[in-house]
Amino acid sequence: MTGKDRKERLADLITLTEIDGVGPARLFQLIGLFGSAEKVLGASVAELTDLPGIGRSIASNIKETQERQRAGTVVADIEKKGWKFFLFDEPDYPEPLQNVSDRPPYLFYFGEYCDGDANGIAIVGSRTASEEGRLFGESLASSLAENNVSVISGMARGIDTSAHRGALDSGGRTIAVLGSSLDFIYPPEGRELARKIVGAGAIMSEFLPGTIPFGPNFPKRNRIISGLSQGVVVIEAAERSGALSTAGHALAQNREVFAVPGSPRSEMSRGTNKLIKSGAKLLTSVDDIFTELPRLKGEVKVRQVLALDDLTDTEKKIIESFSSDPVHIDNLSRMAAVAVPELMQILLALELKGLVKELSGKRYVLNY
To answer: How many domains does one find in the chain?
Structure first.
């Protein structure tokens, strides 16, 4: 199939998707009956009206559409921007999406989607997550990456960002699905993260160039996040959180749903606790994922962590002062009996060795 063929077929699919009344399900129904988007667009009003669920109004919309010329312009713009794209009926279309009834007929992307990404886990949750929630999301993604499991999320603030970073920090692969077009990275501060994701995975979008991060786009893209995965993990979600819509799509797509429990007094735990009561798998560690999906557990990557024997006595004393929770530098100074100015220098050295990570508010946590 030539590049020209692909571009023409993309233009036909764009034309159909932009017609009022033609969503993904109806588009695939029409293509299944006529054989291609081109033949649907060439059908008569009478042929279209005879089909179940296609009334005269939709048939007229298809015949009278003015979108064909615009679609050609859009495809030219996509080519100019250097966007790559998948088409639903081509062999490189992401395998997990192939049996999703409302899958996008085309998907734009930067980066690379590999066969191994089909064994991915989605991690989603609140944009206003607590630091504990963000740390757990990062740690979980890191553990998945160490087992060669790709991490899928939506690059939103909060849990999504933590999940992508956790995968990247462990040298893993990660896929981001946007609620805007590829030329509108959102949130704006996510541009550097997006560049890193492209180098170790892909950012994807079904939206045409110039599509801003409009509210209804985010629930729509959630079906792609779940569809690309073998299971969805929800970390911190209010009762009306968008993350719950991702879990709903996952159930409809026959994916596993996991939820991290939390305090019943926390607003951010009401959604996850509700999911667990409704049958989602309770998750407290990566082992819970591998218990349900043992085929995902791969050979663990060897991380080069410096042995304690290679540290100075003072560095050892500081490391031994940590617990599993973040520690403020003043408390660490008291516990390790090291003055703050000296401690800051040692913590920087431990960060460079990959053993300690600095958080906001002059707090630190172990990173191995």
So the answer is: 3
